[in-house]
């Protein structure tokens, strides 16, 4: 998707309409949830559940609409037989998340009959998916003990690393990060693992995070990693690759103007804060690896659960992100468009072709 945070005042208030948006509430547990299904043309809509204290229902709706659209593009670009969906639970998970609330949520997911399959996202974890799975078949990202693949951040980070290697080859002629300076904003579950991949590949890594404990933990394991005070310092510093790995909207007009990196390739969703940022990156000759292309490793991993998880098979699928990134960059150069628009074109064509030739399918689900 070429831009993030598209405001919505209503469910139908978008250029491309969602198939279904469902509001769920449970008075007993305090559950307030929204599920957005953008498309099931390629298969059942898969996407994580975000548990977050939104300031308003409008903000929650905007987020679920944007995120579910992004998931549809992500699964299509990754070549997966899945559509795109997303869910949000409104509230502070530290205050209101309980097993009863998660079970109530699972019952509502079950009621959708497989049109939507959930997984982990911000504020939800493998243990939560196990509880949700007590009430529904339509959940992935579960623990190995419960038939799942465990933490999907492992494959997400591996996929972003492959996107980074592909970007390096397209820009500098070699897929190696050896000697390159990589700046990572956000070293949570994915950013920490991405930093480790970059270090092992010979990069000099600089990191920042509002959670100073996360930075300290990473530097204990990898003392050569250098901590930077904040994101503003990181992006204006002398780095070759910038990896936004925190929340969305990281690339604004202001940040692009200050950015000194040659490549942007990170794990955060919806990195382009508004339309036109991709053009601003291109005008500054900064190669942008579209976020939903390179961070697809997590959805590739949980999709593999639907076949009975095989880590080697999932890793092989995630490795293809390297090739897909090269395809996107080549199309962008040939058509004189940005990589973001090239990725959108590929994804939109796959969805449109599926809409013309098939009907939604929910037959790939694992019986548990």
Automatic annotation (TrEMBL):
- Give the species: Hoyosella rhizosphaerae
Keyword field: NAD, Nucleotide-binding, Oxidoreductase
Alphabetized Pfam families for the sequence: ELFV_dehydrog, ELFV_dehydrog_N
Q: Which CDD domains match?
A: NAD_bind_Leu_Phe_Val_DH
- The active site of this protein is located at 86 (proton donor/acceptor)
What family is reported? Belongs to the Glu/Leu/Phe/Val dehydrogenases family.
Q: Where is the Glutamate/phenylalanine/leucine/valine/L-tryptophan dehydrogenase C-terminal domain?
A: 150-359
Task: Name the Gene Ontology biological process terms.
Answer: amino acid metabolic process
Annotated residues for binding of NAD(+): 186-191
- GO MF terms, alphabetically ordered: nucleotide binding; oxidoreductase activity, acting on the CH-NH2 group of donors, NAD or NADP as acceptor
- The protein depicted here goes by the name Valine dehydrogenase
